[in-house]
Design brief:
By secondary structure, the chain is mainly α. It folds into three domains: 86 residues, no CATH class; 120 residues; 92 residues, Up-down Bundle (Methane Monooxygenase Hydroxylase, Chain G, domain 1). α3 packs parallel to α5 and α8 runs parallel beside α10. The radius of gyration is 50 Å and the shape is elongated.
Length: 375
């Protein structure tokens, strides 16, 4: 090649050496670049680790000091991934807890748990309860012909179930209170309507009017029906005033019936002076109605006792009747069946009367003890 063997060998050796050195420099440069990249990623992982640890309120996890850079980068990357998953789960927990108005659950520091079933189940339960209450509230408002009276009631009725947030225990309790209030109003309306209907029946019976058709048309307790019932009561009350004498006569007949039912003596009856008044007025009628009310309560409170008295009186009257027949000299001239029936009645009275009187004595003793304690 025109070069001496010695110089050619030295040149070629130098060229080879330079090539090898260039390769080493490239390798060193590449490794240094790789190392720099590892260091940057490690630093980034550290920053992310510290940030996530602070957000999760946990102490930063420290890898082993004996790890190589590659191992350290992988270890830090795995730790960051774990913390990111925990952060995602924590965010979901906090969002769910915010919807429920509850505190988020404390997540374990070890392995990643599954999504929280307790809060999801609680949300489903509360949504079901809210939906049920909402439907009942809408029905109650419709029955009462009313509308939401404030922003909270409007949010119950108008918003979608999923939008009624937070669905906390306290808010759900308030929804229940709204429902209870509507039910109480319905119960009050029903009670008022029944009182009106009872009054209409009482007055119309004394006036000999047929109000059953009107009552059938207004058998509910909606506001419109209450208005109709109230108006009819007012009309009948006016008619009652115009026919006061008839009402007082009817009241006195009813009073006589209750006096008889309670076995009042003539002296006891005479103590009620308004019975003998001829100055017909609303006040006089009220006094009669109050006395009737007292007698009704007295009878119902001692109904079993009065029933025994009535049984005893019936048997006693039968006994007197049989004794009177026994004195009749012509009683044997009748049919033999009449005589046999008379004997059967006598035996029945002789058997039942002592038992009834004994039961009556026991009942009277109980009544006296009760009245003694009451006084």
């Amino acid at each position: 090649m025109g070069c001496s063997q010695g110089s050619s060998g030295a040149y070629r050796s130098r060229v080879v050496l330079e090539c090898i050195q260039e390769k080493f420099r490239d390798m060193i440069s590449e490794e240094e670049s790789h190392k720099s990249s590892l260091v940057r990623r490690i630093e980034e992982h550290y920053r992310r680790l510290l940030s996530l640890s602070e957000e999760l309120s946990v102490s930063p996890m420290e890898p082993s000091e004996e790890l190589s850079l590659i191992q350290l980068e992988k270890e830090l990357r795995d730790i960051v991934e774990v913390l990111k998953e925990k952060k995602t789960l924590k965010d979901k927990e906090e969002s769910l807890a915010a919807h429920l108005g509850e505190r988020a659950l404390q997540l374990p520091l070890g392995s990643i748990p599954k999504p929280s079933d307790p809060l999801n189940e609680l949300l489903r339960t509360r949504l079901a309860s809210f939906s049920e209450l909402k439907s009942a509230i809408i029905i109650a408002m419709r029955d009462l012909c009313t509308e939401p009276s404030n922003s909270f009631e409007r949010s119950i009725v108008c918003e979608r179930d999923e939008s009624f947030l937070p669905l906390s225990e306290e808010r759900l309790k308030r929804v229940g209170e709204v429902h209870s209030g509507l039910l109480e109003q319905k119960a009050l309306n029903h009670k008022t309507a029944e009182r009106f209907r009872e009054r209409i029946r009482a007055i119309s019976a004394k006036l000999e009017l047929d109000e059953e058709g009107f009552l059938a048309e207004n058998g509910g307790s909606s506001p419109s029906e209450l208005k109709e019932l109230q108006f009819r009561v007012d009309e009948l009350e006016l008619l009652k005033v115009q026919h006061m004498e008839r009402f007082l006569v009817a009241a006195r007949r009813e009073l006589d019936a209750w006096w008889d039912a309670c076995f009042y003596t003539q002296r006891q009856r005479s103590l009620f002076c308004p019975y003998f008044s001829h100055e017909y007025s609303e006040e006089l009628l009220v006094e009669h109605e109050e006395e009737i009310g007292k007698l009704k309560a007295y009878f119902r409170g001692n109904e079993s006792l009065f029933h025994l008295v009535e049984q005893r009186q019936t048997l006693w009257n039968k006994k007197l009747e049989l004794e009177q027949k026994a004195k009749d000299p012509n009683r044997f001239q009748g049919k033999s069946t009449d005589f046999l029936k008379e004997e059967r009645d006598r035996k029945r009275v002789e058997k039942q009367l002592p038992k009834i009187e004994e039961n009556l004595e026991d009942a009277m003793e109980g009544y006296r003890l009760h009245m003694g304690k009451s006084s």
